[in-house]
Specification:
The structure holds 2 protein chains of 2 kinds.
Chain A (H helix, E strand, L loop, with lengths): L1 E8 L2 E9 L5 E5 L1 E5 L10 H4 L8 E5 H4 L3 H7 L3 H4 L6 E5 L16 E6 L2 E6 H11 L3 E3 L14 H23 L8 E6 L5 H13 L4 E4 L6 H16 L7 E3 L5 H8 L5 E3 L2 H7 L2 E3 L9 H18 L18 E3 L19 H5 L2 H9 L4 H26 L3 H11 L2
Parallel strand pairs in A: 4-5, 4-13, 5-6, 6-9, 9-10, 10-11, 11-12
Antiparallel strand pairs in A: 1-2, 2-3, 7-8, 14-15
Helix pairs in contact in A: 3-5, 5-6, 6-7, 7-8, 10-14, 13-14, 14-15
Chain B lengths: L16 E6 L6 E7 L2 E5 L16 H6 L4 E4 L1 H6 L3 H6 L2 H6 L4 E4 L3 H7 L4 E2 L4 E4 L6 E4 L1 H11 L3 E3 L12 H20 L7 E6 L5 H11 L6 E4 L8 H14 L6 E3 L19 H26 L3 H13 L7 H9 L6
The chains are: A alpha/beta, B alpha/beta.
Chain lengths: 415, 341
């Protein structure tokens, strides 16, 4: 694996990660995102429909929380989770938890970490964890870590220190076990930076983790409400400053467009793509513009559109769904609203996705109102494609030194 | 015209059915329906897309599976989103962006089976909407009006349908009423050139009533006939006898639609407990593919004059031994000259 930076502008890293995968010929662009999956499949989408989306990232994210309980089946299968889930061509990153469903706190010990699957809790010591990774054979995997320093409202220094100590211990144990496993020679361990909100501990975590032979770094504990990320951005800059340039930096729990940009400016390379999934679950379509250099006519049309939508969002609508109690953002429209009943426009004018090329807002509205499964399929296709398009726009903006314009555009649309 | 017109029959309904092959032993036929949205090879299984969607399957997937006709439910669509909106969206084809054929039912069956407060009179079916509590009357005229707005290639008459397990004078009443309602539907139909109205043979499990219904309805020159009032809990033995009686008396040059068989409710959604609906969609695609492939294989066997052998092979695979085949199936096949084992 080789990370080459094309340029660094105001802390933003533009580049490519090369020589990835079992055959060593795959490439990933940074800044970029990973394809979000649930139990090894893009939500709502069969492979056929997934392949109709343009710009699907080269690497997909799997979660241990959804796969750990199937460990025995996977071990018997022998050929790795990529083939099992029908994605043998995809690069795979295995995270501990699912960013959408946070797990209950209080289950990390000095010797084990627990994840929650549909069948209940799965407790993992370092050796069990590595045995599971042996069965999965991902390209990258998040090391076993203690991410609970930021779970409580108040983060104590003691708890922050413990999260760093434990995570380093887990890391050293896992690295040792990796040495002894032939199968896992081709998988890369991602070291996890912990430390809660305590600067001293964060720096210690970064420096110590960087000393180990990890393939990259996961910045854990920066997720939360939009307000909490704001206060942690300072910490984030300090942390990434301690990390080596030539290894990728992932962040978990951050997926909204404005937050993504903030993190890129502070040296983060890779993000999870669960935000489009959350929007889908609340019956919403991503409509925010990332066209930072539109033609004058389009600007007028878009402005008229955006004005209407911005006005509407002043009353933030809370949509209760089973998988996310997240509120709707100003980056999306809610297709359940009555005003879309007779709207025969596509979700986003000019969007090349399958949904926008074939269907109307009125149809999606009908599917949502009648609780039809197709709503999820079509919305997911649009939301993923829109989101991947956003990342492409980020890379292009960085290349042409126009990131400030893109940032300003996104900021204008953030409520 | 709804199909290529035969030069001698300008006044009568167009012949939309072209027979390609007939089994010399049984009554099996392979054919081609010529409908406004393209040809459809028969025998054919129609996936049910109740609310303008085939569950989690996209129109493109359905097309890729070879589906050329699917079904929409007038009852559901008439309530949500309603015929006016669908008309604005360029008909049901435009609304769901389906380029091939659509068949809509009359709305009557769902009305009676889904709505607890429905009442049948000579006027039509009176019911209370489950969504806004309003009282509505679904008459033959209104049913055809809604289906005209939906723009489906085949529309069904409103029939007075009773459960196949019902006995007594109600069955006879429903049969005669269905004939009267057929005539009202024919009179109300605004688009015979673009939409093909099918009659529905009733009569329950009573051979005499069914024969009467057949005699009367076949006097009306509609483009096609459906066999209704079955698949409601009757025994398979009674079921096949009514089907056989119906097909023996229906005109050969018109299509026959057996209603209520091979329904999408067979999909066992609730047994899958993954947290990702994609699991269901894989299953649906597989099931539809299976049904469509089966019909296609049946058709090929008829064209290649080996339908009886096909049936024997199929039953052999399904049941292992001919003696394990259920007796109703053995009898039904025997009645058209096909023996097993």
């Amino acid at each position: 694996m080789k990370l080459s930076l094309t340029k660094v502008v105001n802390g933003c890293r533009l580049g490519k990660i090369k020589n990835l995968g079992k055959t060593g010929d795959r490439t990933m662009d940074i800044p970029g995102c990973l394809l979000y999956t649930k139990t090894g499949s893009a939500p709502h989408l069969t492979h056929h429909m997934l392949h109709k989306i343009h710009g699907v990232p080269a690497m997909a994210q799997l979660t241990l929380s959804s796969l750990a309980e199937h460990h025995e089946v996977l071990a018997e299968y022998k050929e790795g989770v990529g083939k099992f889930i029908g994605m043998p061509e995809s690069l795979l990153y295995c995270s501990l938890h699912d960013p959408v469903s946070p797990c209950p706190a209080g289950y990390v010990t000095n010797k084990s970490v627990s994840v929650w699957g549909v069948g209940g809790r799965v407790e993992m010591t370092a050796s069990k964890f590595m045995a599971i990774q042996q069965a999965l054979q991902p390209d990258w995997f998040q090391c076993l870590s203690d991410g609970e320093a930021t779970c409580d409202e108040t983060t104590s220094i003691k708890r922050a220190r413990k999260s760093v100590d434990r995570s380093l211990l887990f890391l050293d144990n896992c690295l040792k076990l990796q040495e002894e496993s032939e199968v896992l020679q081709r998988s890369m361990i991602i070291g996890v930076i912990e430390g809660g909100d305590v600067m001293e501990e964060r720096l210690r975590s970064a420096r110590e983790t960087a000393k180990r032979p990890v393939g990259g770094f996961l910045l854990d504990g920066f997720q939360g409400t939009p307000a909490t990320l704001e206060t942690r951005l300072h910490l984030l800059s300090s942390v990434t400053a301690e990390l080596p340039e030539h290894k990728p930096r992932l962040i978990c729990g951050v997926s909204q467009p404005d937050e993504v940009l903030e993190c890129i400016e502070r040296g983060v390379d890779l993000f999870e793509s669960f935000f489009p999934y959350q929007a889908t679950e609340r019956g919403c379509a991503l409509t925010f513009s990332f066209d930072y250099q539109p033609n004058p006519e389009e600007t007028l049309l878009q402005q008229n559109g955006t004005q209407e939508e911005v006005k509407y969002v002043d009353q933030t609508k809370k949509s209760k769904t089973t998988s996310c109690n997240q509120e709707m953002t100003s980056f999306e429209i809610n297709l359940k609203e009555k005003k879309y009943q007779e709207d025969f426009d596509p979700l986003v004018r000019g969007c090349p996705c399958y949904c926008c090329k074939n269907h109307t807002r009125a149809y999606i509205h009908h599917l949502l109102v009648t609780n039809e499964l197709l709503a999820g399929v079509l919305l997911m296709m649009h939301n993923f494609e829109h989101y991947f398009g956003f990342f492409q726009a980020i890379r292009e903006a960085l290349k042409s030194d126009r990131l400030a314009q893109l940032k300003e555009l996104i900021h204008r649309q953030a409520s | 015209m709804a199909a290529v017109a035969s030069p001698t029959s300008l006044e009568s309904a167009p012949r939309i059915m072209r027979l390609v092959a007939e089994c010399s032993r049984s009554r099996a036929r392979a054919g081609e329906l010529r409908l406004p949205h393209g040809p459809v090879a028969t025998p054919v299984f129609m996936p049910v897309g109740t609310q303008a969607t085939m569950k989690g399957i996209t129109a493109e997937q359905l097309d890729a599976l070879g589906c050329r006709i699917c079904l929409g439910n007038t009852y559901h669509l008439g309530l949500r989103p309603g015929p006016e909106l669908i008309q604005k969206a360029r008909g049901l084809h435009g609304f769901m962006n389906w380029p091939h054929n659509l068949l809509t039912d009359s709305g009557g069956f769902q009305m009676v089976s889904l709505v607890s407060l429905s009442e049948v009179t000579e006027e039509g079916v009176r019911f209370r909407s489950p969504y806004d509590g309003d009282e509505t009357l679904l008459s033959p005229e209104r049913s055809v009006e809604i289906q005209n707005a939906l723009g489906s290639d085949i529309i069904m008459q409103l029939d007075d349908v009773v459960s196949s397990t019902m006995t007594g004078p109600r069955v006879e009443e429903a049969m005669y009423r269905s004939i009267r309602w057929l005539d009202r539907c024919i009179a109300a139909h605004q688009r015979p050139d673009k939409q093909n109205l099918f009659a529905i043979i009733q009569g329950g499990l009573d051979a005499d009533l069914r024969a009467t219904c057949l005699k009367e309805m076949t006097k009306r020159d509609v483009p096609g006939f459906a066999i209704g009032g079955l698949s409601g809990g009757e025994s398979k033995g009674q079921f096949w006898r009514m089907v056989a009686l119906s097909t023996s008396r229906l005109p050969k040059d018109k299509p026959r639609y057996l209603m209520g068989v091979g329904h999408s409710r067979a999909f066992l959604h609730t047994l899958l407990h993954s947290d990702n609906t994609a699991a269901l969609h894989h299953l649906t695609v597989h099931n539809i593919a299976y049904q469509l492939r089966l019909m296609s294989a049946v058709r090929t066997s008829i064209v290649e004059k080996r339908f009886p052998d096909f049936v024997r092979d199929f039953m052999g695979t399904m049941y292992g031994d001919p003696t394990l085949c259920p007796s109703w199936a053995t009898e039904a096949l025997a009645s058209v000259g096909i023996t097993l084992g």
